[in-house]
Amino acid sequence: MTFLLRNLAKTNIRLLSSQCWAAKRQFCKPATPLSTCSAFPPKKLSLNAVAPSRFYSASASKEEIRAKAAVGPFTFKAAAVFLGVGAGLLLYFQSEKKKVEEIRKQKEAEKSQTQSYGKPKLGGAYSLTNAETNKPFGSEDLKGKFALIYFGFTHCPDICPEELDKMAEVVDMIKKEIGENVLVPVFITCDPRRDTVDIVKEYVKDFHQDLIGLTGDQDQIKRVAKLFRVYVSSPPDISEGDDYLVDHSIFFYLMDPEGKFLDCYAQNSEADGVSESFKNYYKAYVENGGNLDRTPIRNTPVIE
């Protein structure tokens, strides 16, 4: 009996020892080094994954990099396209500018043709003396031509010469753009005491070859000044040889070929503005069937 109990105890001890060893192998595995541990399980690499592309290889030269970075080559074809577009734009803007200019001129012409209510009645029939020919000359001799008339005096120190220079400039512009014998410049003295035929004759030569100088006696000049509503004032009690100034209106008076008043231009008017204004009146007159006499005015003495 004792022998059986002893063998049973040994058998149980061997069985328990083998179970403990198995448990130890199951739960007491050797520790993995920290350097090879990972807190996350390893990921599988996808075959479809694409690595980020590089713009240039490590062996690319600076010239290749610079060429690839350029926007694009400026070829002859690109230059031709650029010049073609530029030329097209230039032609377009020039065409538009021309259209605007034509519209402006048309409006100015229409404005000049529009009847002006309240226009002063200036001018009329008169006859004075042409200083160049020493012959009578007046409104009838200007029929068929436009006339630009200025009242002044030969002893004027500054204003009259400046205005007559401006008048000469206007006449030259019209002769160049329209032609000869269309616009006649006329100077009428408002100081007949001193402005004799000989003095006026020499005076007008300094300004323009076409300028006609007219003079007369006191009553004749006074009457013509009244027709044009020209203000004239000279000192009282003037003696022969006295030096004095004459105060007078400063205007150009534009008359049409029928002797009718069209417009007047003050001292502050520029030659270009007077010329443009005249061209509008001229165009309107011709388009309305007006008659022009292009025969030259005889402004030289007749040798008998």
How do the strands and helices of this protein lay out in sequence?
Elements: H1 2-27, H2 62-69, H3 76-113, E1 127-130, E2 135-138, E3 146-152, H4 159-177, E4 183-189, H5 197-204, E5 212-215, H6 218-227, E6 232-233, E7 247-248, E8 251-255, E9 261-266, H7 271-287
Parallel strand pairs: 3-4, 4-5
Antiparallel strand pairs: 1-2, 1-5, 3-8, 6-7, 8-9
Helix pairs in contact: 3-7, 4-7
Describe the structure.
This protein has 304 residues and is of the alpha+beta class. The chain has a domain at 129-146 and 182-232 and 245-289: 3-Layer(aba) Sandwich (Glutaredoxin), CATH 3.40.30.10. Helices cover 41% and strands 13% of the residues. The protein has seven helices and nine strands, in the order H-H-H-E-E-E-H-E-H-E-H-E-E-E-E-H. The protein has helices spanning 2-27, 62-69, 76-113, 159-177, 197-204, 218-227, 271-287, and strands at 127-130, 135-138, 146-152, 183-189, 212-215, 232-233, 247-248, 251-255, 261-266. The strands form two sheets. The protein has a seven-stranded mixed β-sheet with strand order 2-1-5-4-3-8-9. Strands 6-7 form a two-stranded antiparallel ribbon. Strand 8 and strand 9 (261-266) form a beta hairpin. Helix 3 crosses helix 7. The longest helix is centred in the N-terminal third of the chain and has 38 residues, at 76-113. 21% of the residues are buried. The mean pLDDT is 80.
